[in-house]
Structure formats: C-alpha cells, structure tokens
Amino acid sequence: MFDRSTASPKDQAFQGTEKIVGIWRLGSRLTRGTGTELFLAQPADSQGNPRYDYVLKTVAGVVSNDVGDVPAANAIRDAQRQIGQSIQAAGVTHPNLIAILDASGSPHAPYVVMPRLDAVSMDQRTQQIEHFAVPVALWWTRQIGQALEKLHAAGWVHGDVKPENILIDAKGHVTLIDLGFAARTHTPMHRVFRGTPDYASPELMSGSTAALPAMDVFALGRVLWESLSATSPVSQHVIEPVAELIESMVASDPLERPTISTVVQRLLSLEIQTLGGHIGPSVSAQRIAA
Length: 290
Description:
By secondary structure, this protein is of the alpha+beta class. The protein has helices at 73-89, 122-128, 134-153, 202-206, 213-228, 236-249, 260-278, 283-289, and strands at 20-21, 24-32, 36-43, 54-59, 102-104, 111-115, 119-121, 156-157, 166-169, 174-176, 183-184. A 6-stranded antiparallel sheet has the order 1-2-3-4-6-5. The chain has a 3-stranded antiparallel sheet with strand order 7-9-10. The chain is globular and about 60 Å long.
C-alpha cells in the first residue's frame, strides 16, 4: 500500500495532473479500498518535481471526476468515519506506528497524509525470505506489540491488526498502519463489524462489548500464529513456549489474555532464547568439539 512499486497503467492517468487536495499535489493512484483511495502526493509547490514521497488517503470520488467512481452513500460515510478516526489517533506517535503528517476533517474532502514507506506487507516480506526463522517472526511481532503498547497507553485500540496492515522494510523495521478502525478504549464499537474476521476476537465479532485493548492482543496472537506456520522447522522445546504465549493471547475470554506490555516483554525474552538456539553450533561443529 505504501511501498514504492510502480502504479498500474490505469492509475497513471492521475500522474502529473494539477489536482490539488489541501496543500498537496496528487500523483498516481496507489489503490482503492471500500470508500477510500490512496494517492502518491507531494507538496503543492513542488510542481515539476518527479519525487512523490508521501501518500494521501481520502474518500473515493473526491479526486476523480468520473461519476462511476463515486461509492455508495454508506461507503462514503464509513470512509469519512475511518479518516476521522485516523485524525483523532494521530497524536499517538511511535517508531513502529505510521505517522500522520497532515490531515483535514473537511466533510467534503477529508484526508490524511503519511510518509511513503519503502516497505511491503508482512506476507510479502515473509515470502521473500528463503529460510524464515522463528526469532525473526518474534522480532517482527514484538515491534507490532510495541506500537500497540503505545496506542493502548494513550487510550486507543487499533481494531484491525492483520498482516496487510503491517509493513516491513528490507532491514526488518516494522510499521503498523491504518488507524481507520481505531477506537477510544471502552467506547462503543460500530454495531456492524467492519474489520477482518480471521484476526478478530470473539467479542469484537459479536459487537457485544466496547473497545478493549485485549482485542488487539487477540489479533496479534493470530498474526504470530500465522507467521510461525511459515517458519523453518525447529525443535519442540523451542516452539512450545511460543505456542503457550499464543494460546494465552487468543483466549476466548478477554480477561484471560495478557496485557500488551506483558506480551512485549515475553516476546523479547523468547526472541533472545530462540535466537540462541537458532544460531547454535551445527552438528559437525559439535562433533569437532567432542
């Protein structure tokens, strides 16, 4: 979503136009979601500059003049709400959380602007690694946990933790993106579930409770479980402590799940432990030592 890959030929129609949103000149369209669109962007006074180092998210139909691009009224309302939530949560900053650099809550053309990251989604990065090791999966998950820890401490729940919202650069730095489903802790959630079922906690799916940090803990546990399924085989004594942590994170009762701070500390400990086993001496080296 935020990576520097080339936009599709269809979206190149926006490249180099004079379309201005706020103080931003738009380039090509990166993607279109349910009611929202993401565009490459640069400061409006950068006309003629080939660099587009920012990403602008706005309601679909705001930029395009094509009537067919305008989504249904309910999709527009949802998109406006998502952008509004992102703006409200923008005050929370952390190295592993996407930064909101500029925003407008205008009812006609709301938008948020973020840095354009040289990164790909968690799933894509995993596929690029020939031998994906358990310590790396734990390291990535811990970075997500650190971003969530800062959100939770500030009174926010992310609400949509999933691999598509986790970007990882070539050096392994993780950024949690998309605050569109963020909610204040203990405030009512949307009556109709809008997130991603595969990573949603039972209470979030049922819509029977207010926003809880434990919802993010559940989703992160599912992400970690999915990551482990892609790792290279390891001995049982290495994987068992990780499995126990995941089991506690995805407990059906939110009161039985650990806090995100506890999860982060446990991940760091497991990361160190598994790293030691991962880089231990080979069988041939052990024989030589014997």
